[in-house]
Specification:
18 strands; 6-stranded parallel beta sheet; 403 residues; single chain; alpha/beta; 11 helices
Length: 403
């Protein structure tokens, strides 16, 4: 029998903190350790934060953007535990801090942990990709209870991001947060947000696609906060043991073609290839590995690998380096980090089929010292190659580099 997942809650006294505690207490495969306050305070029914971080496998955080960013940095500094973050109302620097922490620990962050809402997010991206912006306008309308302090809601922004992603544009370049006075005609491609607050509404969201002669509306209505807690619990079960990386609920649900994470949800022998291009589209452990490689962060690279990882490097069809196991790879990686004063792998194209991802790489580096293969100190390298990755249980199990 698998040991129970040990879970602590940040912000236990908050509305979602209390809901999480009620749900966790009923789960037989969970060891609910208790919770600590937003700023780490204990006492009066709370446990000490240091003790919680020492014993927990994962912490659920539905506090604030600032508090979540602080906690992410603390977890990253100590090497764990994993985090599931459902806070909203982030400043740009807080998101950047959480993403930086995700290079050291696995973090699932989502504006909404409802399974239905995350299915809706995928649908919004698909519809936005299909309906041309010249003919179809997009508006996101949300309503929440009178006590909600941030606007638009994190969920509304998540839906806006999905719509913008479907149209291959940054949301920041097309968003319109509210209208007042004489603002002129609506620009083509704009994604608008409208916010309502009142009563005890848990959360209602509509994404409206409006053309001249018809309107399509995709909607979700939350009836019980328990659904957010159950989604967060699913994320907690999923993230434990994963490689460091910035994940979201689309990864957890296996519903994110943009991540190419089809291995865990492949149910038939035939899997359609998932084509990706940007670095952010790669499966999370591969994305984290390449990022660590470019920073010459050997520990960060090793955190993405399984203990029995196999590595081969081929040049001109011949094997020039080969290792079996993380320890042997660590020696090779440490030498590689010192061999170059700077280096960068740029992802040009990628394709994922089941558990394998083939990446076309543009490689640039500057040699730091004379090397046995004839490369000289100060020599600039610039060539193309491919890397084949196999991911197993959230970690990289095989790498084959070819040039």
């Amino acid at each position: 029998m698998k040991p129970p997942v040990r879970i602590a809650v940040a912000g236990l006294r908050g509305r979602m903190g209390r809901t999480l505690a009620e749900v966790l207490a009923k789960e037989p495969d969970v060891a609910f350790l208790g919770g600590f306050g937003r700023d780490g305070q204990a006492g009066d029914g709370l446990i000490d934060r240091a003790t919680a971080l020492e014993t927990a496998d994962v912490v659920l955080d539905f506090t604030t953007g600032a508090a979540a960013a602080d906690l992410a940095e603390i977890c990253a500094a100590r090497g764990g535990p994993a985090l599931v973050i459902g806070a909203t109302g982030f400043e740009a620097d807080e998101i950047a801090r959480i993403d930086a922490a995700a290079r050291r620990v696995p973090i699932v962050r989502s504006g909404n942990f409802s399974i239905g809402m995350n299915m809706l997010t995928s649908l919004v991206a698909q519809v936005a990709r299909t309906l041309p912006p010249e003919a179809w306008d997009i508006e996101v309308v949300e309503m929440h209870h009178r006590n909600k302090v941030d606007a638009p809601s994190g969920t509304a922004l998540m839906l806006g991001e999905a719509a913008a992603e479907g149209r291959s544009v940054p949301l920041a370049s097309v968003e319109r947060r509210g209208r007042d006075g004489i603002g002129g005609e609506r620009p083509v491609g704009e994604i608008g947000f409208a916010v309502l607050r009142g009563g005890g509404v848990i959360g209602d969201h509509d994404v409206v696609f409006a053309a001249e002669d018809e309107v399509v509306t995709l909607s979700h209505s939350a009836k019980d906060r328990g659904m957010f807690a159950r989604g967060a619990l699913a994320a907690a079960r999923w993230v434990v043991g994963r490689a460091p990386g910035a994940y979201d609920m689309q990864d957890v649900l296996g519903a994110a073609p943009r991540h190419g994470s089809v291995a865990d949800r492949a149910e038939t022998a035939v899997v359609e290839p998932q084509r990706t291009e940007p670095m952010s589209d790669l499966p999370a452990p591969i994305r984290a590995y390449i990022d660590a490689y470019n920073r010459k962060d050997v520990d960060g690279m090793l955190a993405c690998l399984s203990d029995d990882v196999v590595f081969r490097n081929l040049s001109g069809g011949e094997v020039t380096a080969e290792t079996a196991g993380k320890a042997a790879f660590a020696d090779l990686a440490a030498f590689g980090a010192t061999a170059f004063s700077e280096r960068c792998q740029t992802v040009v194209h990628a394709i994922t089929v089941a558990d394998r991802t083939l990446v076309e790489i543009a490689y640039a580096a500057t040699v730091a010292q004379d090397l046995p293969n004839g490369w000289k100190a100060g020599q600039a390298l610039d060539f193309a190659g491919t890397s084949s990755f196999r991911v197993e249980n959230g970690l990289i199990a095989e790498i084959v580099d070819q040039s």
